[in-house]
Known about the structure:
This protein is α/β, with parallel strands linked by helices and 305 residues long. It contains ten helices and twelve strands. Helix 5 links the parallel strand 1 (90-96) and strand 2 (119-125).
Amino acid sequence: MNLAEIETFLTIVSTGSITRTADLLFLSQPTVSHRLRSLEEELHFPLIVRKKGLKQVDLTPKGADFIPIAEGLLALWKETQSLSLSTNQVPITIGCTDSLNTALLSPLYRKIMVSDEQIALNIRTHQSSELYQLLNNHDIDIGFVYHKLYYKNIVTEKIFEEPLYLVQSEHPAVAKAVIHTDEMDSSSSIFLSWDDQYQIWYDRWMGASARPLLTVDTITMLSKLWLDDSCWLIAPASVVREMSRERRLFVSKIKNAPPRRVCYKITHTTPRLSSVHAVERFETLLEEHIKSLVFEFPAGELIGP
């Protein structure tokens, strides 16, 4: 029994497919099947039900019972790897979306780097849906996402919510405190899909056929490519605050307002022992950081340097 076989089995459990597992692990399907059979031979019992014509992989009763054992073995190996770090700091791996990392958590990261000698940060940026799987596999210790998914081993906790604003340059095309999106020219807009609920709202009010001037998927690209004063966008308060550090912005409330963006913290029910202290320390600092944040702005005014 080796790590590759364990990882392959858990990926099959996650995907329910030999083909999808091969794609995710960059392996051939025969290699995936060989690893699975090798593991079954060592365990002396089958892990999956084999029937002709089945596209979805079903586990045997013993295969289902083996899942927590396999997860424990994988987690133990990862903890063993962390012992090789020659430092007094306790490592913590944080998974987060781009906008949360950039607009919300980067000041906290800087504070930890400068003043907290207990934590060694490892920061990873992924989509919300990917973060659940990474946490489930103990590839991260704590994550921050925009929507709730059900995983047996993951605890999801709402930590804050924030409004979205309509943001223009310091020379706004529509200088009003409250604006309906019908008043704006969508062909001058910059679009970033903040979460699923926002996408649904956007399709309803702007139209699924709307063609913005620019579509991006990171705040970094948003900041670099917003070159024209006629451009505008809709953004969460934390992103507005971050952008206002570099440019003057005219901020308006939205009459047909989208749903507030909700941020959830996700943690594993059986965390890695080597990271428990670091996670607890980070959560304490995070709570203090969120309490210090401002998620409301005066409407119809300029903010920024």
